[in-house]
Amino acid sequence: MTAEVRQEFNPLRVVQLAPLVRRITAPNPGMMTGPGTNCFLIGNKQITVIDPGPPDVEHVQRIADYCDGALHQILVTHTHPDHSPAAKLLKQLTGAPLLGSPIELSTIYDETFKLDQPLAEGDRVTTDEYSIEVMHTPGHVANHLCYRLNEPNWLFAGDMVMDGSTVVIAPPDGDMADYMASLERLKNEQIDAIAPAHGRLIESPARFFQSMIDHRGRREQKVIAGLQALGPVAIDQLVLNVYDDVPEVLHGAALLSLQAHLDKLRQEKVADFSPDQNSWQLLTRKNG
């Protein structure tokens, strides 16, 4: 991470992105989180916090201090440990209710997150200053929500996408077919910018979402080509072929997304898994 990026996402800074939007980045930079998890604060008189982040006490205190009694509600995009655990601490400090998806994940999730109000597709969270539309966007995980603000017309996208990299799709809670469908859906939404949970604002949303669709499509074709060349093949060998453009230090994360690609191909009856041989093989050639 460059000095410029470290300064831009300094956890001690409150960055104003628009008249009603501010960002405080959590102090959790890393391989999977980029410069850290972005916590967004919407509004001035009745503040909505989106994704308070990990349970770092000083970070949570900074959010509460900035809100100064005006925190109206806490929204989470999903219950991964870098997004939602701070919600419990923030509620304890402020009394603000917690809102998010009621869908529970089966693997990695935040057991401390207890909803006060469940949200679902099409719900709206409104104040006198702004309106937020709830969009259910499964794929990264089943309980993933995006939030569309009316002014500015931005999509707070959680881990649907991230600036400068791609997100991991980790089964069983992550589903590649669902993820691709969510990308297609968002590509057709009329929004002006994407506010991801990791990294900078993303301009030209439709073009960006299409680039992510294209990237995943090319990766799927590499999976099919790898199965054709190597199959039957174990997944830990296939990852070396399919992700030969990715540093080996990232192959652990790549294995998760590769599993999601293989599960999608299995659902489509393109590939199959042999438990006896612990290997994957191609059933038929998929065009496109």
SSE blueprint:
Blueprint (H helix, E strand, L loop, with lengths): L2 H6 L6 E4 L2 E5 L12 E5 L4 E4 L6 H11 L3 E5 L10 H9 L3 E3 L16 E2 L5 E3 L4 E6 L8 E5 L4 E5 L17 H12 L5 E4 L8 H26 L4 H8 L8 H17 L3 E4 L4 E4 L6
How would you describe this structure to a colleague?
- With 288 residues, the protein is an alpha/beta fold.
- It folds into 2 domains: 3-203, 4-Layer Sandwich (Metallo-beta-lactamase, Chain A), CATH 3.60.15.10; 213-282, Winged helix-like DNA-binding domain superfamily/Winged helix DNA-binding domain (Arc Repressor Mutant, subunit A).
- It has helices spanning 3-8, 57-67, 86-94, 176-187, 205-230, 235-242, 251-267, and strands at 15-18, 21-25, 38-42, 47-50, 71-75, 98-100, 117-118, 124-126, 131-136, 145-149, 154-158, 193-196, 271-274, 279-282.
- The strands form 3 sheets. A 7-stranded mixed sheet has the order 1-2-3-4-5-6-7, covered by helices on one side.
- Helix 2 packs across helix 3 (86-94) and helix 4 packs antiparallel against helix 5 (205-230).
- The longest helix is centred in the last third of the chain and has 26 residues, at 205-230.
- The chain is elongated.
- The two termini are 37 Å apart.
